[in-house]
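Worked Example 4.2. Consider the chain below.
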Amino acid sequence: MTENNKNFIKKTILYNHHIHLGAKMVNYSGFYMPLQYTSSLTEHMSVRNYAGIFDVSHMGKFILKGKHSIDLIQYLSTNDLYKIKIGQAQYTCFINDKGGIIDDLVVYKISEENFLLIVNAANINKNKKWINDNIKKYKYSDIKLIDTSLKYSLIAIQGPLSLFHVQKLTDIPLNEIPFYHFKIGKFSGIRNVLISRTGYTGSKGIEIYVSNENTEKIWNDILELEIENHKIIPCGIASRNSLRLEMGYRLYGQDLSEEITPIEANLVWIIKFEKKFIAKKILQKQKKEGKYKRFISFIIEEKNNIPRQGYILVDENEKPIGYVTSGVYSPVLKKGIGIGYLTNQQKTNYVFLLIRNKKVLIKMVKLPFIRIKN
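Applying the procedure from the previous section yields the following structure tokens:
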């Protein structure tokens, strides 16, 4: 079976390690990924209270280099790359010519002409085509796109004690790396490892970008660390999902899509209207007129009611007025939490969720759902 086969499921370099650790494996974005090792609740609370480690090597990893690479990224994305310096990262999104979100991504500024782009696994080919099509369209002959997705791995260590734990493996003072900044240096004896103060959990942590041939050593060295009888435990995508949702972080394919603009997704803070970018006029008009579906975040006070993707939101007369894009049980709040969209422009006093044909009142709240002290 070849990778061109639609049914082909890729494996990260750590696949056998996940099996050895007893992980339940699932197909996630075309990769075999660990859903959980013990229980998603145990893994979730370990990250909130101590530390956990994730294999997120399925994520796409592009190198974009060339004198005009920054100009291309500037035009295709909404945030302003000129506002960050070498050694910084930036959250942004690619949009299409109608303003819909092609993907949300993190851009790392390695040098003035060299950028690392971390994109969603399911969108690797779509992003590659979008970038290459625009390189040709605007005749940026100096720009080179290198897809390193299957050559490099990404390991995330997250939790309030994560930096203290892994500091033993590097001379780089991890606590001195500001949020959304990175250093390139030696980690676990391996040279040229990119260590980034980023993550998808809201808890303190780092993400490590390393070549596949060195990934297993770093993974094993981290799992062997022990401080005061505590070890970092491996965590799967189930706990990663509940962790990100407690912070209100969006997930592409559920909360974001090409039919949703960053304004609708309440991501206005990554739109810099003072610069030129694709579909700028469309987004300006949408923001000015205010005619768009509204992103909401909510909790359910009533026990034993968990919102799920696709559940319908209704008014007091059971008229459909929106839908849930992500929902989960929050282990910290011990309540159901969710995010979604209201499609009805008219204001309503109460919003209900239909769960098994029963109307359940929801309480709209501001994000994040929880406040973390790291």
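The two ends are 46 Å apart (CA to CA). The CA atoms of residues 21 and 74 lie 43 Å apart. Compare this with Example 4.1 before moving on.
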